[in-house]
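Weekly structure sync, notes
Attendees: PL (lead), two postdocs, one rotation student
Agenda item 3: pending single-chain targets
PL asked that the sequence for the first pending target be pasted directly into the notes so everyone works from the same version. It is reproduced below exactly as submitted, 265 residues in total.
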Amino acid sequence: MRRNGRGPAGHSERLNPSFVGWLRRRAYPLWNLDGPAPAEWVKICTVLVPVRQVDHRDVEHALLAAGWTPCGAGDWAIALRSPDGTAAARISPFDPTGPYSAALYRKAAHTRQVPALFAHRRLTGGGDLQVLEWLRPVPVDEARAFHRAITVQAPEVADLVEVVRRVHERARRELPWCGPLDNNPANVMRAADGRLVVADLFHADGPNLYATAATAPDRIVTLIPEAERRFMTEIPLAASGPWEPGAKEAIRAAVAAADARKTRP
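Predicted structure, written out during the meeting:
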């Protein structure tokens, strides 16, 4: 299963109409993370988003209303581009590895071989929001060469490899179904300043995770809290999908039954 993405907006009725109107009027001349946000709100670039009970659909709708535009889709997330073209929001309904990717971008920022991370927020139900600098694709051969350098721990990526190793080891200790490093060439991109960066190295082992949800849902319920998997059947699957007919409904029903068994006296 691959990462990144785009998808349908929704839940407009759950946002305050005055808030949506304010967003539509908001200008985006500069990134501005200065100045306080109101209580229980967070400023993501120049957009104010409520921090309580906000899921992936709420964030997507708020950013679309503020002028962000769809620019991609993958298995785990959709992507929106900022009005000024300098940033992308990666919005996932369910991504256990999101915090580890954000940790990598922060800890390896000094290498300049990972994207600049402007903001990261966990979302209600296990979702994940990352706001990153805008990146563009590179030729496949160039991307594969960068991945090979990481694999053989070449001197030019030695600092990056060390951070990747530490963060990935922690993810594998803490997460059930944490997958190996993702060497998809599409994960290597170029920033506006010309440097080569790698993103989305960490991912959940999607095939095994979702097979377990379908065939042994009690294991899912035991290992992943409900609040962290509520929207696990809403990932786009744009790269390796689409979802098989009825698959999402079957998984939701199986996991709901397992939840009920767990809470039964």
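Discussion points:
- The chain is about 35% helix and 20% strand.
- The first strand starts at residue 41 and ends at 44.
Action: rotation student to compare against the earlier draft before next sync.
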